[in-house]
């Protein structure tokens, strides 16, 4: 008995030691927010004050030292995110996650981002301010890689930490330039739809923005080929499980002093990006004797894409311009290594790449390039034997000066300096928003735009052999859409169609008017805006477009076919004010009906696969209101019902019946229980959260959330047959800068500042975010020092 007790005591002791060892190991993986560290090459001491939410306020004697410290603290909170983001363009995701990502790597290697980054760096002036500051930031990251703890994700995947280079910075920016990817999903699909159905069906699609909807006004100071579906399916598959978020859309509005209570500019911005854990932005406040900026940084990028100081504020939304064109190429029947051009036959360029695969053999593949770009068939295995389609992407064409642009934006001290940096942004297309302490407001659409012949629609696959479908010219930046200090005293962007430029409407994948209409409606109605009313507006969940649609369609209801319960809910829907609150049932019924209406209208013609691909486009979002208001047209008839020609009224009634039946099945027979909180939820997913046993340790949420697609508080979701709306994208931050009280400007992140699951700042803002709360973006040094939770000091070695 004594021996058993002794053995048990030894085992208990060993278990205790194991627990202690695990605790010590886990504790060693946490970021260091206090104490002293040395950094190679520092000229002077740098003090980093971490506030209550883990945001670093970096005080240095010079900017190079500040950027080194920024690189270090950014890496200790976000190295895993940096690692994934730089791997996308280089085709190195399968190296981390295995064979399921071979197609993703293949796709991005074929896009040419990495090759273009290498070319840009080869021609980079290493003595420019941009390069010097970027290298200082990278030195800080690499110091952490060398001397700091290894994040848990590296242990779990078995990958090694590797130093960062300036190519990685350009690759991260290149991924951002690509990531909204609507041309890939839309142009080949539209071509297939036209080939399958004919022009009569196409004229009833919202391919171009409706002229009766709200557009952004300029102000310049003067009053049957299956290839399409195969490519779309291939792109969708490649992007489906990408472990980094896609950039989606965004809101921003800036109000002039004439429309504010305190007579100063107020600025708001909430970029819409795919939700993930960690969230996209890393906040940092950098101060030197000659420079200050409170900025939002993309992982691995030294200069903030969003930022403000006491003089000015700037932010971004996606322009949604069309910067990708697809071309049918023609191979030489006598020599398959050549393709047809206006000048005669030219040889394909052949490029071979190798993908490393975790727990598998390396995969090598070769793709062809023409004068337009890569041949997409070589990327999509299922269409390798078909007619070649080349892809032309503006990002890989002109000289890449995007990093210089970001440096210029973040270092501008006034409107003129800020504006001078904008022409350097050739891609991605961005709406850049601006406001300053002097009372100026501005909006510029930045991108290298080009003009096509009037007869050419870039929404379809073009002819690559004749020369007739090529760009005629590049537009000068002065011809881009913009408005500076317009007489209506505000600027805004909600990814909607901008008014005509250079005598034409610029083609794009613009989102419907819903958010723009609400923003204009609210801004026009009020001339005494302040920070509090801005914070209410940025959380607005009302859709005037959806209520207009209900009013239009409910007239078609045959009430004699409705039960008493249905009549009650229809009456409630008729009186709905368009708000998406958690306890409301009208949003749930509306979205079920909306889905079934589109499905019953279009799936019979398109087929299930093409219909599901259509649901993933911005065109679908524009089609909802446009299509439902069409009184007649070929889409309404169900081609599968012989001897019957369905009308809009038939489809409306069938869709309501289908929606009701599905709600009873999913949520029970009591309509009062069909509340929005049961179907509209947000979970921030870490790549490891897809493994069920790890989900609770890495994911954040789920939370029921207010809002919906295309309201100002744009908590969006993909449509599918499940009838549940799992939010996939939304405000990546909500920022409000009030120049009457700039030190008390406010913001919020979706989860937390840190991407380290052992940090207390991994998810400390998540509940605040879903509750619509804010916190200060602190800029007052005395307040920062007095309230700092900790101080980390860097000294030279």
Automatic annotation (TrEMBL):
UniProt cofactor note = Binds 1 Ca(2+) ion per dimer.
Read off the Pfam families from this record: Penicil_amidase
Q: Where is the active site?
A: 250
Q: What is the lineage of its organism?
A: Bacteria, Pseudomonadati, Bacteroidota, Flavobacteriia, Flavobacteriales
* UniProt entry tagged with the keyword Cell division: no
Q: Where does Ca(2+) bind?
A: 322, 325
Instruction: Write the protein's name.
Output: Penicillin acylase family protein
- Keywords tagged on the record: Calcium, Hydrolase, Metal-binding, Zymogen
Q: Which family does it belong to?
A: Belongs to the peptidase S45 family.
Please name the PANTHER family in this protein's record. Answer: PENICILLIN ACYLASE FAMILY PROTEIN, PEPTIDASE S45 PENICILLIN AMIDASE
**Which Gene Ontology terms describe the biological processes this protein takes part in?**
antibiotic biosynthetic process
Cofactor(s) recorded in Swiss-Prot or TrEMBL: Ca(2+)
Taxonomic source organism: Flagellimonas pelagia
